[in-house]
Amino acid sequence: MRKFAFLTMIAVIAAMPGFAAAQTKKGSNGGPIVTSQGHPIEFVRKGMEIAFYVGDDDGSPLPTKDMRGRATIQDGGKTVTVPLTPANLNMMSGTLQTELSPKAIVVFSASLHGHSLTARYKAE
Predict the structure, then answer these.
(1) CA 12 from chain center: how many Å?
(2) What's the pLDDT tens digit per position in 21-77?
(3) How far apart are CA 96 and CA 71, in angstroms?
(4) Which end of the chain is more exposed for a tag (fewer CB within 10 A), N or C?
(5) Which residues, other chains included, contact 12 with Cβ-Cβ below 8 Å and sequence gap of 6+?
């Protein structure tokens, strides 16, 4: 039942009009950037490692030292959650258990001092 509730929650969030999902430009690390509540978030994938570079609303790096986050991945009819940990100055990273297909949907969710960020990407 929990799994169904979690999947329903992800579907509802993804359908919200204010949900960040526009991947229009590439970041300095080569990944797509989505803006969530004014914060640019770049998604980068290298093999089994995924990373999210988080920027402040003025474009400068946002320190992720106290940030908590996860990536929810929907791929091939399965949903997995990858815990993310702070790395470097403005990066949250995690390790995948399996390779992502080009059709995978990756949803970044993080919070810092009560401020929540959510961004949606296609693995492509």
Answers:
(1) 16
(2) 444 689 999 999 999 999 999 999 999 999 999 999 888 999 999 999 999 999 999
(3) 10
(4) N
(5) none
Q: Where are the domains of the chain?
A: 2-122
Q: Which CATH architecture has domain 2-122?
A: Sandwich (2.60)
Tokens of 81: 């959650």
* 3-class DSSP assignment, residue 40: strand
Quick one: tokens of 71? Answer: 């990536």
Q: Express the helix, strand and coil content of the chain in percent, nearest 5 each.
A: 10, 50, 40
Tokens of 63: 């320190």
Helix, strand or coil for residue 12? Answer: helix
Mark residue 40 as left, alpha or beta (left: phi above 0; alpha: psi -120 to 50; beta: remaining).
beta
Residue whose pair of structure tokens reads 């080569």 in the numeric block: 30
pTM: 0.80
Helix, strand or coil for residue 23?
coil
The region that residue 11 occupies, defined by phi over 0 for left and psi between -120 and 50 for alpha, beta otherwise, is alpha
Q: Which two tokens stand for residue 102?
A: 């080009």
Is residue 83 a contact partner of residue 102, using CB atoms and an 8 Å limit? no
